[in-house]
Amino acid sequence: MSHHQPPHHLPSPCIIDTGIIVNKQDIGHLLSDLGRVRYIHSIEGKLHSEGEGCVMEVFTDVQRSTIIANHALYLNILSFDYLHLAQSPEQETYFDLIQDNRQLRLIPLSNPLQEQVTHRLNADALEAMVTQVLSAKWDVQIDDDSDCGF
User: Same structural domain for residues 79 and 32?
Assistant: First the structure.
């Protein structure tokens, strides 16, 4: 009888607040919920452009470009080699997308925790309105049925 041991697997990386991320799926997860951001685009360490916008789409497609225009960011993860996740001295997280001598820094202006609460409040308010509308419709139908002598 032989004792076969399964191969030893290294644990997956665990990145908390700072680190280098090369896995495209991990980069996509980080970027997809950014919302509003301030962006700083530099080439060879020199400021090329900056502004504010909203992350509209994060995707991986070899035939599409990363586009930033009209305060909208369409980010193709394949446009970048890796993402450097870091924090400022004020403990604010930022994301540096790096490709050769190009860096696109994304600084979140929205907080996922606040947006989750707002989203939940909006969903609860919508559900309450639908309940009121359906309840009112049932009341009208009952009143109509009562008028017909049923």
Answer: yes
Q: pLDDT tens-digit profile of 78-91?
A: 999 999 999 999 98
Residue 45, domain extent: 19-110
Instruction: Say if residues 58 and 77 touch (Cβ distance below 8 Å).
Output: yes
User: Which structure tokens are listed for 17?
Assistant: 């607040």
Total domains present in the chain: 2
Tokens 């049925």 — which residue?
A: 145
pTM for this predicted structure: 0.70
Structure tokens at 24: 């495209």
3-state SS, residue 79: helix
Distance from C-alpha of 6 to C-alpha of 128, rounded to nearest angstrom: 54
Condensed to tens digits (0 to 9), the pLDDT of residues 108-134 reads 998 766 655 555 556 666 777 777 777
| Rounded Cα–Cα distance for residues 8 and 143 (Å) | 72
